[in-house]
Amino acid sequence: AARIIQNMDPTADPCKDFYQYACGGWLNRHVIPETSSRYSIFDILRDELEIILKGVLETSDQGDREAFQKAKILYKSCMNESLIEQRDSLPLLEALRMVGDWPVASADWNKTKEANWSMEEKLSIMNSRFNKRVLIDMFVWNDDRDSSRHIIYIDQPSLGMPSRDYYFNGGNYQRVREAYLQFMITIAKMIREDKNMSKDDSFVQEEMAKVMELETEIAN
Q1: Residue 187: per-residue pLDDT
Q2: Distance (Å, rounded) from C-alpha 172 to C-alpha 174?
Q3: What is the pLDDT of residue 127?
Q4: What value, to the nearest 5°, has the Cα angle with vertex 92 and ends 86 and 96?
């Protein structure tokens, strides 16, 4: 109760400016950080929790249960920046190889290199190994008709951008859309360079424009 009162501004007239009356105390005592678009009690709790988690993850893992050990291993792998820099793009190139490569970064992608290539298999690998849903989303959850059992759900996946508005609307949406396309082009060029492929900017732009067109059709 004291915290709620502290975050209010009882000097304001609620009939004239209810927002100032309800939140004026909070506004006077908090500034939205430059790295955030919002700042609430939940953001403060999240920051405090991250500090606590950092301390837990950096403790010795002797005697920990398996789940805690996995969490600490994952944390250490993310913090080992020197090894990340040393490996460079190798993890990404390996991931592309596992799912059948990428046409824009392959010299002979149209040639049949895998006689038994299966889209269903590649989609399952993307889901199970990389937690990435492409074209369709599949997951196991409680059955709405019988909560005592679990069933497989099939749904539409998320889009490359946050919502379909980004693919069709103008203004800021269009600027994000143009930046998104340029980002894809940049990544494709980097991968081609890492694979020692010839520089072909026009080809890359044409291929990424096709990707953007496909995503737009899916969003529609």
Answers
A1: 94
A2: 5
A3: 87
A4: 150
| pTM recorded for the entire structure | 0.69
Beta carbons within 10 angstroms of residue 134's beta carbon: 14
- Asked if 105 and 98 count as a contact pair (C-beta separation under 8 A), the reply is no
**136 close to 156: Cβ distance less than 8 angstroms:** yes
The answer to whether 167 and 187 are in contact (CB under 8 A) is no
Nearest Cα to 207, choosing from 72, 106, 79? Answer: 106
The dihedral of CA 149, 151, 155, 159: what is its sign? Answer: positive
pLDDT at 149: 97
pLDDT tens, 44-61?
999 999 999 999 999 987
Q: Please report the pLDDT score of residue 100 as a whole number.
A: 82
- Alpha helices in 149-200, H assignment, sequence order: 165-168, 172-194
User: Which portions of the chain are predicted below pLDDT 50?
Assistant: none
One-letter amino acid at 57 equals L
Q: How far apart are CA 185 and CA 66, in angstroms?
A: 41
Buried b / exposed e over 144-161, threshold 16 CB at 10 Å, is eeeeeeeeeeeeeeeebe
DSSP code of 113?
-
192, amino acid identity: R
pLDDT attached to residue 117: 78
- Segments making up each domain of the chain, as ranges: 1-79, 88-108+160-219, 118-158
Structure tokens at 82: 């020197």
Residue whose token pair is 């007239």: 13
Cα gap 210→88, rounded to integer Å? 28
